[in-house]
Specification:
The strands form four sheets. A six-stranded mixed beta sheet has the order 8-7-9-10-12-11. A two-stranded antiparallel sheet has the order 1-3. The protein has two domains: 3-119, no CATH class; 147-366, Rossmann fold, CATH 3.40.50.150. It has eleven helices and twelve strands. The chain has 371 residues and is of the alpha/beta class. Helix 4 runs antiparallel to helix 5 (84-94). A hairpin with a 2-residue loop joins strand 5 and strand 6. It holds the Pfam family Methyltransf_16.
């Protein structure tokens, strides 16, 4: 059992997921030695962070923020002295050449480099007690882009809807699902975003879990989904599971008379999902018709019932309305789930507004009223 104060756990989570230091709170009410030892044992000497470190820029900003605060508390406690290793790592970061550099011939600086993001999570949600037992938490580490726009589309990062859906699934394992659950997540132009959705696989049925990443992408812009899957997920429980697979799914084939038959075969014979998961996939009105068409094919009558859980962030109400209308026009049953995120399990997201659910809704889509 490895226990730390809940306020220190917040710093640990923030450091692991690259939360800006300005959003972190220094626990000045705790004993100086406790704070100091936490920084040395759980940040500086943490083997996980040595293997999957946050970006150099973030580490530099973190130590720049916390060292003066630590020195201030140490000055009031003659029994404590700042470990020289803290200064050594900060000086090394200051002299590192991996930070933003001017690009010859261009104004501004280079875009931020990719970085490892580590999420802490547990089946029962966040602990409510003052002490947090780290052994109760699992971690998932993902190599992500830190840019908003990359290769002509949104950056290869996990957006808020994926995090909200992952938390919903973790806190509601197997809810409204059949006993054999396969995970199947569609994403267009965002092939790396299904990783966090695979967090609850072991909670449902890891032996049966099967992940497919549906991608409609240009291979001249992105690596194949299989490569992205192997490089982005560092420590996810399902990343090395033999039943974790990926395949390309061309949504437009659902609108092509010549493509419907092979697509139906792919959906029913190869993927054969019980539950379809998707997040942040309604952002372009032009993509709504092929998306709804492929959902209709995937959810059509089969040997057993199927359903889809789609988490969506409402950015443009008109686009959202077009999607819900299109789903209902096909005869599919659409239901918005009544849920409320009390404590956000995954704190790293540029989209967090502080509002309940941060504008994210989760929709269940099925082909029959019985779902």
């Amino acid at each position: 059992m490895v226990c730390i104060h809940a306020d220190l756990f917040q710093i640990l989570r923030g450091y692991a997921s690259l939360v800006p230091p300005s959003r972190l709170q220094f626990p000045s009410h705790l004993q100086t030695q406790v704070i100091h030892d936490f920084l040395v044992d759980h940040i500086l000497s943490n083997l996980h962070f040595q293997t999957y470190p946050p970006s150099v820029d973030y580490q530099r900003s973190f130590w720049k923020w916390i060292i003066p605060l630590l020195e201030k508390t140490v000055a009031l406690d003659p029994e404590t002295e700042v470990d020289s290793r803290i200064y050594d790592v900060y000086l090394e970061l200051l002299h590192s050449s991996t930070g933003p550099e001017a690009v010859p011939g261009l104004t501004g600086r280079r875009p931020p480099s990719q970085a490892y993001i580590t999420h802490f999570w547990r089946q029962d949600g966040l602990a409510k007690s003052t002490l947090v037992d780290l052994d109760e938490y699992q971690t998932t580490t993902i190599l992500e882009s830190r840019t908003m726009i990359e290769s002509g589309t949104t950056g290869l990062r996990t957006w808020l809807a994926s995090l909200i859906l992952a938390q919903y699934l973790i806190l509601n394992p197997g809810a409204d699902f059949s006993s054999s659950v396969k995970e199947y997540s569609n994403s267009v132009l965002e092939p790396a975003f299904w990783e966090v959705l695979s967090l609850p696989c072991s909670s449902w049925n890891a032996a049966q879990a099967q992940v497919h990443s549906g991608c409609q992408i240009s291979t001249t812009l992105f690596s194949p989904a299989a490569v992205i899957m192997s490089t982005c997920i560092a420590t996810d429980l399902s990343s090395s599971h033999p039943n974790t697979n990926c395949c390309f799914l061309d949504w437009s084939a659902a609108l092509d008379p010549d493509g419907i038959e092979p697509l139906t075969s792919l959906l029913n014979d190869q993927i054969d999902p019980d539950v379809i998961l998707g997040a942040d996939i309604v952002f372009d009105p032009d993509l709504i018709p092929p998306l709804v068409a492929v959902l209709r094919l995937a959810l059509q009558a089969n040997t057993r019932s199927r359903s889809a859980l789609i988490a969506l962030t409402t950015r443009n109400p008109t686009t959202m309305t077009k999607f819900t209308d299109a789903v209902q026009d096909t005869g599919l049953i659409l239901k918005k789930l009544d849920f409320e995120i009390q404590d956000q399990m995954f704190i790293e997201s540029l989209e967090c507004t502080g509002d309940t659910n941060n504008g994210v809704g989760i929709f269940m889509i099925s082909s029959s009223v019985e779902q």
